[in-house]
Amino acid sequence: MKHQPGGLPDISRQAGSLTFSSLVITIVVAALICVFSVATSQAVDPQNGNKGQTAARRNLKTIIVDNYRPYTFVNEKGSPDGFSVEIVKAVATAMDLDMEIRAGTWEQATKELERGKIDLLPMMAYSRERDRMFDFSVPHTIAYDAVFHRSGDKNPGSLKDLSGKTVIVMNKDAAHDYLLSSGLSETMRLQLVDSLPEAFRQLASGKGDAAIMPKLVGIITLRRMNLSDIEPSPWLIDGYTRPFSIAVKEGDHALLERLNQGLGIIKHTGQYDAIYKKWFGALEDPHIPWKSALQIIFLAGIILIAFAAWNVSLKHQVKSRTKDLEAEVAERKRAEEELRTSQQIIEGIINAIPARVFWKDRNLNYLGCNAIFARDAGFADQKDVIGKDDFQMGWRDQAELYRGDDRQVIESGCPKLLIEEPQTTSEGTTITLLTSKIPLRNSDGEIRGVIGTYIDITNRKQAEKAVLESERLGAIGEMSSGVAHDFNNSLQVICGNLELALTDPDISKEVAECVNSAKKSATDAVARVRQLQRFTRKANNVEFSALDLNMILDEAIIQTRPIWKDETEKKGLQISFQKSYGKIRSVDGEPGEIGSVFFNLIKNAIEAMPDGGTITLETGVVDHNVYVRISDTGEGMDEGTKLRIFQPFFSTKGFELGRGLGMSAVHTTIRDHGGKISVKETAPGKGTVIEALFPFGNNKAESLEKEAVGSHQLSARVLWVDDDKEIRKIGKRYLEALGHFADMAGSGQEGLELLGKYQYDLLITDDGMPGMSGWQLLEKIKGRHPAMKIAVVTGWGADVPGEKKEKYGVGYVFGKPISMKQLQNLVIDVIRSRI
Q: Can you tell me the distance from the alpha carbon of 661 to that of 650, in angstroms, rounded to the nearest whole number?
């Protein structure tokens, strides 16, 4: 039999398409049915020649190429070795043949095969040009070529990029043939060698610009030669592939038939898989890429169709050549053996397909399946599935759903393609399948049942769900950011008026207490808004300072006092605190945010102890970090809760008690402070230990509190630009209370006009304003007022990149609300810079 695949189809562009791959699988399944129908309804005639006689034992000669690992090479003992050597030896043993193997060059091997001095080559890539001189067996493996180049050289994007370059290839190799037949050799300088090591030696010495060879063989050869300055292209050459077959001299059909039978036998007995695993198991990714999987499927379809045509052809040969009953009986016995071999090969191909395949009769009982389907169904062997129905499978809960689809296909005669369906596995988990079913017909076209295939798309569905969740969180983040911006403007007015009220010398003690209480709540609100902005990745420019975590923990206990005191008094419970503080170093952070973290953690610990208990607070130092551990003796968490505790919107409380942002915000705040948080210990009924790590402070936490003697006695002229009228009022009162001159502008245009009339020491501007934004204002005045300092006060809380600040000459950035103390320190810093 002559193998003529006519080239593999280019499927690289469809390799990532799940829909396309599923259709391909369905087509291949249909091809399987055709083969089964032909194989079971027709007798098959073997290759003509020795009718009814056993072929004589034959001694075969061959040549292998050295240094072509892992396919062919001469081992340390001087013996031919490699994947293709073991394959051809196994085929020879199966077919009662002797083998004589020696090493030589590829050019020598091809010439001797063409002249008949040797009988076969164990590994030759099929091509139309070679098909004119040799006959080929069915492929036993496939390889893909790549371009190798020196490290540091520009990686060629395609073969066309090698135009005008010196390209090294093995003489008479598949790459050599392709460059000649495609015309690409006319655009480049070919340099021919007899071995791959020689190709790499020339490439490394600068005698060529690139080398073309099978990617796997090249990588292995590089490792053995210890060449680290040569690397392969990340892409594979898609103009051709190497479907490696056993090649014989043109016209030697008897030998080719025996070799094909031998390949079928070693595939069925498992010898092929063992040899393949030995040589490639440690080199290949166990997860087959879609592109490779689809190419295997196409190749399988080609082989199956070829076998079907072969069987039909052999049948006609039997009929035409049978002259008497004795010869016909002998030929039929031989044909039965061929049929068994063919069926074994087909079975091997079906089991190699990376999809589940099954077929049923009209009563919806299983007639057969491939091995992976049997494992899904909970059976060790495919034969155990035959005769059973879906109610006897691991997915009995979905049995009626599947059978309904089967009936529709059988009754309508129309396929059902690419249906998403659930399935309960034998382990009890639920997965999602993409299923296709077509009618199973006999040779007369009568529908005998249904044939189907499916693939597991659970991971893809989970990925889609994750993308949708990410998009939802992104939308929530944008909305939250907008709300936070407006809230910050309101907080600027609230905090500003409260601060100004406290500057009144006639304020009574009682009123001052009320104002201070309101100011504390407003400050807490500022911390919550900053927390929300951090969660949405629009964090404020927070000014860090050196913090004593022991002190902040004590303050958090006081803040949570109303919670646990209420629990103890109303329910008669006992909630106690134990402290084990170590001698720790300060950390850099924002006190309000860190205080909020500890408040949330202690509050959660209290709520985890509905029957009372003890909360233990520990601090200490480990690996240049300060650790804080908060332990409770409460209900604890199971593994599922532990894994999700820091996820946004996850909460173990009812909706009316929480929205699931607390622990997520805690995680975000600690991360933004350079720290980590984890569940150290937990188990249902055994309490929980939460540990937070904070890096040591660098004692360089900067602030604007740089009081200089006498500097507060100087005044500055300040222009404040903001579209919010109330914020302008607060800003003016702030500055005048501090003894400075203040002009206010309600828009960027007004600010531009004032800057044209007066000289200012400091410009304070909002960033987002209608009409002309703060950044547009700064763009228009850039370079005109070199002595004037610029500060941006923003309600968005967005970090301003350093290059943007440098571009517009911005020296200071504050998130709203800006306090009177911050403003005072800002102006002092401006005044000092001009002294």
A: 7
Place of tokens 């304020």: 507
CA dihedral over 707, 711, 715, 720, signed as positive or negative: negative
Please report which helix (H) or strand (E) contains residue 218, including its range.
helix 215-225
| Rg from Cα positions in the chain | 40
How many helices (H) does the chain have, and how many strands (E)?
24, 30
Residue whose tokens read 């079906």: 350
Q: How far is CA 387 from the centre of its chain?
A: 41
User: How far apart are the C-alpha atoms of 444 and 767, rounded to whole Å?
Assistant: 79
8/245 Cα distance (integer angstroms): 14
- pLDDT above 50 (res 705): no
Mode of pairing for the β-strands spanning 366-369 and 356-361: antiparallel
Write the DSSP assignment of 387-412 as a string of letters: T--GGGSTTGGGHHHHHHHHHHHHHH
Other CB atoms within a 10 A radius of the CB of residue 591 amount to 16
For 144-182, b/e burial (b = at least 16 CB within 10 A) is bbbbbbbeeeeebeebeebeeebbbbbbbbbbbbbbeee
Under a CB-based contact definition with an 8 Å cutoff, are residues 735 and 755 in contact? no
Rounded distance, CA 616 to CA 577, Å? 6
The whole-angstrom separation of Cα 661 and Cα 678 is 16
Answer whether residue 577 shows pLDDT above 80: yes
Contact between residue 72 and residue 82 where contact means Cβ atoms under 8 Å apart: yes
- The beta strand positions in 227-288, using DSSP E, are 230-232, 242-249
CB neighbour list of residue 124: distance below 8 Å, 6 or more residues apart: 110, 130, 134, 136, 244, 245, 246, 247
* Beta carbons of 618 and 581 less than 8 angstroms apart: yes
DSSP string, 704-747: S----TTGGGS--EEEEE-S-HHHHHHHHHHHHHTT-EEEEESS
Query: From the centroid of its chain, how far is CA 25?
Result: 24
Three-state helix/strand/coil letters over 773-800: CHHHHHHHCCCCCCCCEEEEEECCCCCC
Q: For residue 141, give both structure tokens.
A: 């493996």
Average pLDDT over residues 723-749: 88
Q: Is residue 240 within 8 Å of 127, Cβ to Cβ?
A: yes
Residues in the chain: 835
Q: Which amino acid is at 605?
A: A
Q: 803 φ, ψ to 5°?
A: -65, -30
CA distance 535 to 481: 10
Alpha carbon distances (Å) from 397 to 196, 394, 417 = 58, 8, 22
Least confident of 73-77, 326-330, 394-398, 428-432: 326-330
- Name the residue among 664, 569, 559, 556 with its Cα closest to residue 612: 569
Confidence of residue 310 (pLDDT cuts 50, 70, 90): low
Closest CA to 553 of 510, 597, 507: 597
- pLDDT per position as a tens digit, 53-90: 444 578 999 999 988 989 999 999 999 999 999 999 99
Long-range contacts of 470-473 (CB under 8 A, 24+ apart): 473/648
pLDDT tens-digit series, residues 343-384: 677 777 777 777 888 889 999 999 888 888 888 888 888 888
Residue 86: count of CB within 10 angstroms of its CB: 20
- On whether the CB atoms of residues 233 and 146 are closer than 8 A, the answer is yes
Rounded Cα gap, residues 827 and 835, in angstroms: 13
